[in-house]
Amino acid sequence: MDAAQQESTARARELQRSWYGEPLGALFRRLIDDLGLNQARLASVLGLSAPMLSQLMSGQRAKIGNPAVVQRVQALQDLSGQVADGSVSAGEATDRMEEIKKSQGGSVLTATSQTTNSTGAPTVRRVVREIQSLLRSVAAAGDIIDAADALAPTQPELAEFLRVYGAGRTAEAVAHYEAHQS
């Protein structure tokens, strides 16, 4: 990618952050992980082509042009929060995604309560995903593993943290988080 493409991508991601609250790549990756989807299935539920979804995720395109797609994104964010806090089962989520796929809607994507449970506290899964996202925005998984290996002889707990959150699966990180809460 040349400098002009990098600048264009960075500009698109900043526009996405201002319009949607975060870059669409991060939002869509979270939906994929939380709802157990792949990119093709997410594109299908949203009513986008797979190439369009990819362009939005990579920052090659900044804006979702179809208002109904924007509402489906909002509905999936709400559903993702309900799955994360356990109020909706995986089977129910599959049925709800079919309903969302058929829905029409408005053009505003608003912040949701997806990051909190019924008591207003962040869900464990959401906290873990934020930690993973932060670590992965700083370094690639291989670099995080290299750092963990370097720390392991003197700081084994910190090395484990880096491995689990920086390069592990979300389910493993959730288990680690829950095991280390007092």
Sum up the overall morphology in one term.
Answer: flat
- Profile the largest sheet: none
End-to-end separation: 46 Å
Share in β-strands: under 5%
Report the radius of gyration as a whole number of Å: 18 Å
Weakly predicted, low-confidence segments? 106-115
Report on this structure.
One of its GO terms (molecular function) is DNA binding. Residues 104-121 have a biased composition (Polar residues). Residues 101-121 are annotated as: Disordered. 69% of the residues lie in helices and 0% in strands. It has 10 helices and no strands. It has helices spanning 3-20, 24-35, 39-46, 50-58, 67-84, 90-102, 124-138, 141-151, 156-167, 170-179. It is flat, with a radius of gyration of 18 Å. The chain starts with a helix and ends with a helix.
Describe this protein with a few key phrases:
DNA binding; DNA-binding; 2 domains; mainly alpha; 182 residues; Lambda_DNA-bd_dom_sf; 69% helix
Topology summary:
Layout: H1 3-20, H2 24-35, H3 39-46, H4 50-58, H5 67-84, H6 90-102, H7 124-138, H8 141-151, H9 156-167, H10 170-179
Helix pairs in contact: 2-4, 2-5, 3-4, 5-6, 7-9, 7-10, 8-9
Brief rundown of the structure:
With 182 residues, the chain is mainly α.
